[in-house]
């Protein structure tokens, strides 16, 4: 079966035979690239205004074209526009509708332009907008972390290394560690936006164009920071997509780390936190279950974002200059990354305020792992002992305490004195968890005072 429509295709002129339906079906991207329509039309309007400004088309022609494009946008918005596979992609669908609506003058829109620089422009406009929205929702999540950190600035929990109890920390401090990760992610998004925001239009198919286009003017209309400096590079490279996917992968990696911890903490064996019923789901067979599906799914979706990044790197690998149709596939990966990232960040921003904290369980767990052993060693060092000797002495003390089934702070001065000479009552304040965290009152430390400072500077970052 072949399509009758080859003549209708903007590139149909040199074709004698019509396109097989199977080929149309195989090559079309309109089923997914139609979501670029707003940016496609925005780019076309700017291009039209520029064409009129440099005198390639008449002002009246530009007006007609722009009106037509705007009416197409309205129809698409209201769902009245018919996307046609035989017109291949979003660009040709819109252009062909334009000609239908405004007549011959519509055919002038594509002057000095190719779908190659057009699609690269659309994609950059689209991604710039998505990055802005992603940052907005990332900021919501970061704010939610600050809020929770504020109420939990003094709550004590075990800090882990090797997932073994290491030293006591405040829960606020732990949450602000997450905040720091996201802050760097936010910086990365902003940084990659700089390289997204360069305009390919004017590169045409690959070599530039012989029309006297004012690229700077089009760039200004579209809010681009600059024009792409090499036409062949401009139409072919998708490194800005790769960079975005890499940034997204790092964000997902961070979210997967948070997820893993939430999953552990909600387990009754830890019992550190609970997540409101509204953000959990149950089991269809085990009535007692309340499962942390959101963190689990976020952890799972991390895999697919990494996959998209690998897909994009592989798509670009060894591609010769300039544009190749391979690049049509970039949208499949990019849209998936954008959608997944949006979904994960915004559900997290909603879920964090739904976390409730079981301070007693955290405290009990912190007490169980001899978490203040380092404090005892530090105390001995301050009293004049070399750190290695202090380490040894405290090691023996811990071993004794384990043997007796006691906490360090339960040991009498005499018991402590067997291994650690010259101690007085003052030591107990350091063996208490509160004393231990309060002592770490240094920039970046876990003391509640430092956590409050970190929150204040975090909030300041968010209001900038
Ligand atoms: N649909 C194409 C894409 O997504 C647009 C550019 C096609 N250019 C071409 N000469 N076939 O990449």
Q: Beta-strand percentage?
A: under 5%
Secondary structure tally, helices: 19
Number of domains: 3
Order of adjacent strands in the largest pleated sheet: 1-2
Q: Which superfamily, in CATH terms, is the homologous superfamily of the largest domain?
A: Fumarase/aspartase (Central domain)
Unreliable runs, pLDDT <50, ≥5 residues? none
Hetero groups bound? Answer: arginine
Q: What is the subunit organization of this protein?
A: single chain
Task: Write down the Rg.
Answer: 31 Å
Mean pLDDT: 96
- Please report the distance between the alpha carbons of the first and last residues: 60 Å
CATH topology of the largest domain: Fumarase C, Chain A, domain 2
Map the helices and strands:
Blueprint: H1 21-27, H2 30-33, H3 37-53, H4 59-77, H5 90-102, H6 115-151, E1 156-161, E2 164-170, H7 171-196, E3 198-199, H8 215-222, E4 226-227, H9 231-236, H10 239-266, E5 273-275, H11 293-316, H12 330-351, E6 355-357, H13 359-368, H14 373-382, H15 387-404, H16 413-417, H17 427-431, H18 433-439, H19 448-463
Helix pairs in contact: 3-4, 3-6, 3-8, 4-5, 6-7, 6-12, 6-19, 7-10, 7-19, 10-11, 10-12, 11-12, 14-15
The structure holds arginine.
